[in-house]
């Protein structure tokens, strides 16, 4: 079983240590998103170690479609398959299924939908999601839930949240069963429940109180970063976080910008993930100590300085802005790779600095200084 230790608090910011079967996670932590067991942009699991990644996140829905979770199980699980010996979190597939709005039908038993690859009919419910994640043998499995679109009418949100709670109970029972089976690769797989409720604070709070009774390994705030304003997001975290147990990790799903992360850490969040740093990097948008820049801009044509002075990532240690801009213009894949490495390093280093700031009791001033230096660009 996992053990979460709250090491220090600075205001509401938590500094924790989460011990798992695949190693210790120092929190707050940013999980590097490798949807199909690979980071988009030609970044390997060995690269992830070099840039300080603690947790890799893979996608249940996508891996179920290809190569197939049974293939991954036959290969010894995701850790062996992708040659990664640190923690892996798998999302439940819920967000992907619900993003296929035109191709799905939600029922009490689960969701019927069509594959975005070949249109093949697929069914996924709580039990199926847990079975797929058990085959993948990730460290942390996420419960199967409905990610509610924003805005949604209150009656729909109430119905959906009640069903998500019933699904969570089924996820927990199925995971207990799977972890007891002889041929299960990771019998210590952990389960995180997901809080939903749109931007209705009372529904969010009631749902938080309900799922906390299940005494899960961790909890997540889902259904944000789906179109609401940053203020609505922060208000929702403010409402939910006090009702989550301090002795368990709290994960804000799919968030986000460096500024969002600082604000959420200030409100008690431990875990983060987002495709944004890798996606931005693939398009030449890179994060720096002074905000975000676009390397494709003409002003970098003769710029011999690194992306970010003082940065120790592989791109900044060896190459200039001018060279990386040239690679983009020449459509060389190395351009994407270097920028993705830089952005992920930037995020992992930011989390390291956040942990040091909470440890040192100066998180508030650290946050203000960072937000000012990014000037709202990042």
UniProtKB/TrEMBL annotation:
Cofactor: how and how many bound: Binds 1 zinc ion per subunit.
Region of interest (RNA binding), residue spans: 254-260, 278-282
Enzyme Commission designation: 2.4.2.29
Reaction it catalyzes: 7-aminomethyl-7-carbaguanine + guanosine(34) in tRNA = 7-aminomethyl-7-carbaguanosine(34) in tRNA + guanine
Binding site for Zn(2+): 311, 313, 316, 342
Organism phylogeny: Bacteria, Bacillati, Bacillota, Clostridia, Eubacteriales
Source species: Clostridium bornimense
InterPro entries named in the record: ArchSynthase1/Queuine_TRR, TGT, TGT-like_sf, tRNA_ribo_trans-like
Name of the featured protein: Queuine tRNA-ribosyltransferase
PANTHER family per the UniProt record, alphabetical: QUEUINE TRNA-RIBOSYLTRANSFERASE
Broad enzyme group: transferase
Keyword Lyase included in the entry's annotation: no
Annotated GO CC locations: cytosol
Residues forming the catalytic site: 91 (proton acceptor), 273 (nucleophile)
Family membership noted in the UniProt record: Belongs to the queuine tRNA-ribosyltransferase family.
Quaternary structure and partners: Homodimer. Within each dimer, one monomer is responsible for RNA recognition and catalysis, while the other monomer binds to the replacement base PreQ1.
Cofactor: Zn(2+)
Role played: Catalyzes the base-exchange of a guanine (G) residue with the queuine precursor 7-aminomethyl-7-deazaguanine (PreQ1) at position 34 (anticodon wobble position) in tRNAs with GU(N) anticodons (tRNA-Asp, -Asn, -His and -Tyr). Catalysis occurs through a double-displacement mechanism. The nucleophile active site attacks the C1' of nucleotide 34 to detach the guanine base from the RNA, forming a covalent enzyme-RNA intermediate. The proton acceptor active site deprotonates the incoming PreQ1, allowing a nucleophilic attack on the C1' of the ribose to form the product.
Annotated transmembrane regions: none
């Amino acid at each position: 079983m996992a053990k979460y230790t709250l090491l220090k608090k600075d205001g509401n910011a938590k500094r924790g240590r989460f011990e798992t079967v695949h190693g210790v996670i120092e929190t707050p932590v940013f999980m590097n998103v490798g949807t199909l067991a690979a980071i988009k942009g030609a970044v390997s699991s060995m690269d992830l170690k070099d840039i300080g990644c603690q947790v890799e996140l893979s996608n249940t829905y996508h891996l179920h479609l290809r190569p197939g979770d049974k293939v991954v199980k036959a290969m010894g699980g995701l850790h062996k398959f992708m040659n990664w010996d640190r923690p892996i979190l798998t999302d439940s597939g819920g967000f992907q299924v619900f993003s296929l709005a035109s191709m799905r039908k939600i029922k009490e038993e689960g969701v019927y939908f069509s594959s975005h690859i070949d249109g093949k009919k697929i069914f996924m419910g709580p039990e199926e999601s847990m079975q797929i994640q058990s085959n993948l043998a990730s460290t942390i499995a996420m419960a199967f839930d409905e990610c509610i679109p924003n805005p949604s009418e209150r009656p729909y949100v109430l119905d959906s949240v009640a069903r998500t709670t019933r699904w969570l109970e089924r996820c927990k029972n199925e995971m207990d069963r799977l972890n007891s089976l002889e041929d299960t690769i990771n019998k210590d797989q952990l389960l995180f429940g997901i809080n939903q409720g749109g931007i209705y604070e009372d529904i969010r709070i009631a749902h938080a109180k309900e799922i906390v009774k299940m005494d899960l390994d961790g909890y997540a705030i889902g259904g944000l970063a789906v179109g609401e304003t940053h203020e609505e997001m922060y208000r929702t975290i403010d409402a939910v976080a006090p009702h989550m147990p301090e002795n368990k990790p709290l994960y804000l799903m799919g968030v986000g910008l460096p500024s969002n992360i600082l604000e959420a850490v200030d409100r008690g969040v431990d875990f983060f993930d987002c495709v944004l740093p890798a996606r931005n990097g693939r398009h030449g948008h890179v994060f720096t100590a002074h905000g975000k820049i676009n390397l494709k801009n003409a002003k970098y044509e003769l710029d011999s300085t690194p992306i970010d002075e003082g940065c120790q990532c592989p791109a900044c240690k060896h190459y200039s802005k001018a060279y990386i801009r040239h690679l983009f213009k020449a459509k060389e894949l190395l351009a994407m790779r270097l920028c993705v490495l830089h952005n992920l390093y930037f995020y992992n280093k930011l989390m390291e600095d956040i942990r040091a700031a909470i440890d040192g009791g100066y998180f508030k001033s650290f946050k203000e200084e960072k937000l000012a230096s990014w000037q709202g660009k990042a």
